[in-house]
């Protein structure tokens, strides 16, 4: 049974309150909750793209498999060279093999952290099948964090039907957990169930918590409002999210602001400025990569198109 402190840390992480968690005071290293606290703190740094900070809080000589996995994830995301990224992925593969052994010094919680972190890295690397296998898709896994990532992967490849199956399977064993509600909201956000009202209500309810500061939730609610045609309200959420991010929006918020700028009464120049910022600061963001690929495809097809001669009327 988790302590109330660890339960609170998990909820903060689930709801994207990463800036709060990076300032988290860790318990004594001899505490049984030291590793879980450190895992969530380090993962919060990764979520904020502060990968260098992870090396400062996780000892390089740690023998804990969960901490090794988070450190490898940070190196993967922070690396610019392909060889460095590949090395980090290989380390995560080795850790996945290690935790399946009989002599590994790790409890089930730590093994779960390894699978979740490794699955996250594999998904980001485009290794979808490996990610799903690592996370236990289609199995009887009772790791709700793993289920949440599986659902996100399925939604990202336009398979909401499979995402719903994973969610329904999890409902058989998971309690009415906050993460379970978040998973359902994510599915609703993609499928448009109940005209986005359910997911909008969930985000609004969580944002009503005075002890929570989560630009991620604000951005999510802004998306639901955008999809419901409430453009001014969506822009308000995005602006508040940017404010909570220190006026430096992350890729997700910036992408949504770009979409919002192209709707309503906004000027085209605003959308173009935001798009230019998104493309230059986050060239690997999925929306940017998709638009660039479509642009190249259009140019290739246009180059092959032969304009037929104008028809000349006979005398």
UniProtKB/TrEMBL annotation:
One of its GO terms (biological process) is intra-Golgi vesicle-mediated transport. It is a peripheral membrane protein. Gene3D superfamilies: Tetratricopeptide repeat domain. The keyword Glycoprotein does not apply. It is found in: Cytoplasmic vesicle, COPI-coated vesicle membrane; Golgi apparatus membrane. GO terms for cellular component: COPI vesicle coat; Golgi membrane. The keyword Cytoplasm applies. It comes from the Eukaryota. Its main location: membrane. Keywords: Cytoplasm, Cytoplasmic vesicle, ER-Golgi transport, Golgi apparatus, Membrane, Protein transport, Transport. GO terms for molecular function: structural molecule activity. The coatomer is a cytosolic protein complex that binds to dilysine motifs and reversibly associates with Golgi non-clathrin-coated vesicles, which further mediate biosynthetic protein transport from the ER, via the Golgi up to the trans Golgi network. The coatomer complex is required for budding from Golgi membranes, and is essential for the retrograde Golgi-to-ER transport of dilysine-tagged proteins. PANTHER family: COATOMER SUBUNIT EPSILON. Belongs to the COPE family. This is Coatomer subunit epsilon. It comes from Obba rivulosa. The lineage of its organism: Eukaryota, Fungi, Dikarya, Basidiomycota, Agaricomycotina.
